[in-house]
Amino acid sequence: MCGIVGIVGHRPVGQAIYDALIVLQHRGQDAAGIMTDANGTFCTRKKNGLVSDVFQQRHMDELRGNVGIGHCRYPTAGTLNSSEAQPFYVNSPYGIGLAHNGNLTNSDELKALLVQQDRRHLNTGSDTEALLNVFAHELQGQDGGRVTPDAIFAAVAAVHRRCRGGYAVVALVIGYGIVAFRDPHGIRPLIMGRRTTAGGVEHMVASESVAMDALDFEVMRDILPGEAVIIERDGTLHSQQCGPRLSYTPCIFEYVYFARPDSIIDRISVYKSRLRMGERLAEKILRERPDHDIDVVIPIPDSSRTSALEVAHRLGVKYREGFIKNRYIGRTFIMPGQDQRRQSVRRKLNAIELEFRDKNVLLVDDSVVRGTTSRQIIEMAREAGARQVYFASASPPVRYPNVYGIDMPAASELVAHGRTELEVQAYIGADWLVYQDLDDLIRACRYDNGDITEFDTSCFSGRYVTGDVTPDYLARLERERSDRAKSQREGRKGRGPVEPREPEAGEVTPLPSGPRVRAG
After folding, report:
1. pTM of the entire structure?
2. Could you say which of 2, 43, 242, 459 is catalytic?
């Protein structure tokens, strides 16, 4: 999962993109990058680390220009690799920078065709680089070599024909403006907005509406599945449906965990969705244990707080903050490698003994994925003196890999895969475990928007909306992307030759542009 942003303004946009990435930091904590168009020259700064660590004032001073894009990343396809920090860049045609949130399910096939048939060079294993080269190759042959809206829309249509999976994209075409588009199923989120300044109207696209709120942009609407939006340097806006809307099935895990609660995605409030998850979870608890002996409901901070508050309200029991979170530790779910996740849990959370001692405690979390974190948290609750520790998940059992941009590709690493709920309960050490039902989760999320009747629920249901995910594909993902495979690659890397030098901490690299654009 990643965060993307693009802004076309009437003044330098580097600081605004930085501010937006800070707000989207929860979507990726491993690398960040900004690319701007400074009168025909791309300036870029990208590196491993948090947004606040990657960009210092000297870097911001070099990110000139009124048009730019930004990205914050966590590695969905392997271990952290600084060469895969985004945005990516190609100089033909024109000069194009691109950032992407999601994952392509046919990336291996695409890469082979790009190299063998399209004669494009790929420098990394990133599917973002493959997507960029598909877009660049298709744009090159359009409209007599001119950059026009028709040429760009035709290129995006070709991307939709050639690429499969979940993707939200923002691209910067030098001398022209920004292009943003979304996969034909609408799996990954993308929203657009505008604000009026003394210089005129400025436009923005981003992964979540909170980025608009932070920069005082008015939300216009979500970019629709298969749609592309072009924002020219002068603010002229174009939009077109570039491929058939195959479905409108946003990823339901955005509402469960990834998105900020104050975001609105596809006209659905994340906060309200989580409240309704809590309502329905409480109803299930009352059905299964009408005479429960729960003394207190305690959330696992942060993303479960909203649901836990409503669970406590519906059950008529106390809600208490029993864990204090160290906010300088990243989100453990998106840390690369099981060892790193395990070591971070106790550094991240500390139990308040007074809230646990001699009580029957219901811990509420948004989900149970690998089970390691849940198990350690339950141990912490017992060490703090809890008499009984019950555990509730606001989402159903995660039994299947997610292949559309969330790093849970290895089924063998999912605690609920091949296990019953009672077996998961025993594994994590809970006295009782209750999961949300999938139908209740879907109803909780679709409440606000009549346009959304279905979601991508693949990690819960095993149904993949793109229709191209086979057992062989999942087996290959497990071989390539499991924690074990990542650690083996890291081990080989440590014994291998010295890798090319990374830029020094203070370096900002101006990228040479391609030919000047002839606007149509």
Report:
1. 0.89
2. 2
